[in-house]
TrEMBL record:
Name assigned to this protein: DUF2520 domain-containing protein
Domain of life: Bacteria
Putative oxidoreductase/dehydrogenase Rossmann-like domain residues: 19-135
Domain DUF2520: 153-277
């Protein structure tokens, strides 16, 4: 991991398996726990979920660990993963810090894409090193992710000591780690939302426009597929500016205006989306025209 704090030298090497507790062991926690357990990276101790029954289901899914009912039952561990939803991370960290389980040798981390390691400030006040490591992928099917986790990119930020160990732990199971700026982590997450969520909204807008033009919904998706796939492949290969095509790229403002007016008459909200893209795409077209021929 180029440029990562603690990623060079021996500081982050895994000399022997460390103990791991997981607070909020959902799909991400189950996936990572199984990978680490199978690789011998961690010795999984305890799992604390909202209910004991939920924790027991996680233990069964992972094939390792022990479910506990509250913080008092947790055996002290070297590393704590808080795998809850974003809205519960700070509260769970507060409870962990108040339990007296943490010390200056503890590492506490979460896997949120939107929150930075600042959400773990309570643990830091107890002397623990903290970090956030965000695997950039969907965990809808944990068993599928277990089988193909290798080469998954992970955005990493946090304390040097925590990163030195955790990056090594993630790389042991095949992850590819990249540094992100703690203060701008929300922009990092916004980028992922653009790439994975809003592109779906664009596909929906394109499909609805095709349908309004008289094309069946299933055929509309077949029309969109090669356009989207080829455009994405070109952008990944040569960069967005080089890959840009269409009326704005060739300076056909008349067509752009006609399309906008038609969308405005049909569905103003979709027209407003189109208008926003006119400005951004025009900026990209300017970059394209400055590129060497």
């Amino acid at each position: 991991m180029a440029g990562s704090a603690g990623s060079s030298g021996k500081a982050g090497e895994l000399i022997s398996p460390k103990s791991l507790n997981i607070i909020g062991c959902g799909k991400v926690g189950q996936t990572l726990a199984q990978l680490w357990s199978e690789s011998g990276t961690f010795q999984l101790h305890d799992i604390l979920n909202r209910s004991l029954a939920s924790g027991q289901r996680s233990v069964i899914a992972i094939g390792d660990g022990r479910a506990v009912a509250d913080y008092a039952e947790l055996y002290p561990a070297d590393v704590y993963l808080i795998g809850t939803g974003d809205d519960q991370i700070s509260a769970c960290c507060d409870a962990l810090a108040a339990s007296g389980k943490l010390n200056s040798n503890s590492i506490v981390f979460h896997c949120s894409g939107a929150l930075s390691s600042d959400a773990l400030s309570a643990a830091k006040l107890q002397g623990a090193s903290v970090a956030s490591i965000h695997p950039i992928r969907s965990f809808a099917n944990p068993q599928q992710v277990v089988s193909n986790f290798s080469n998954t990119w992970c955005g990493c930020e946090g304390d040097t000591v925590a990163l030195a160990f955790l990056i090594s732990a993630f790389e042991t199971i095949g992850a590819r780690c990249v540094d992100i700026a703690r203060d701008n982590k929300i922009l990092y997450h916004a980028a992922a939302v653009f790439a994975s969520n809003y592109v779906i909204t664009l596909i929906d807008a394109a499909q609805r426009s095709y349908i309004e033009a008289g094309i069946p919904a299933d055929v509309a998706l077949q029309l969109i597929s090669p356009l989207l796939t080829e455009s994405a492949e070109n952008a990944f290969r040569s960069g967005p500016a080089t890959a840009l095509t269409g009326p704005i790229a060739r300076g056909d403002s008349a067509t752009v205006t006609r399309q906008y007016q038609a969308l405005l008459q049909w569905e103003p909200q979709t027209a407003a989306l189109y208008q926003q893209f006119i400005e951004l795409t025009s900026r990209l077209a300017e970059q394209k025209h400055k590129l060497p021929s």
